[in-house]
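Known limitations

Structure tokens in this collection are predictions and should be treated as such. Users comparing against experimental data should check residue numbering before alignment. To illustrate the layout, the record for Flavodoxin-like fold domain-containing protein is reproduced below. The input appears on top and the generated tokens appear beneath it.
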Amino acid sequence: MKTLILVAHPRIEDSYSQQFLKHGALAEAATWHVLDDHQPYDIDHEQALLRAHDRIIFQFPLYWYSAPASLKAWQDAVLTRQFAYPSLGGALVGKDLGLAISLGLPEKNYAVGRPEQFSLDQLTAPFQAVANKVGMRFLPTFIIDRFGSQTAPQKQHLLTRYRRLISQPTLGHLANDVDWTVSRLQVLQSQLPADQAQRLGFVIEALETGQQDLSDLTTTLAMIRDAEDQ
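Generated tokens:
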């Protein structure tokens, strides 16, 4: 799976969060494409990038409850009817569309009855509408919650989740999360000295055993439900 990350950030060189995430993106061999560096847009080039990737991530800081102007300008220029409409070009049908949004305020503030009054799902509805219009699968929104206030362990957890967003084919299922984690640990294991690799092997084995136990439990519960329905 190939992932294209479209970054809209007018001051990206000053953004610690974007530079931090860039390392994770490149580690997963994703294409890092900063929109503000490519204006005016070469439409053919931008559309070719979209065609060549399976998952598209719009990545941006939340500016006045929306994305920076460069992302809207890019959408208006690149997502032409002949290219994007399923009844015409249909170039995006079946691809994934995700959002990676950095917040300056606490994520919990974005809800009815909270200080911002609107949920992030409500604020990102136009992007969901775009995905629906062009036949893309809309992924759960990835939130970077006040990056500057996070501890080092929190940032590492954020990076792991971000790398999963970029490279894990199916998101939102525990079994797929475990498979992805095991695959990354196996790569790390191959790079370690023998004694450390052996210890990491025990961790990998425990994860795989736990996953199998969970699968067996799920199967048993399904059989019980089927029996009750008969």
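For this record: The domain at 3-171 is CATH 3.40.50.360 (Rossmann fold). The mean pLDDT is 88. Please report discrepancies through the issue tracker.
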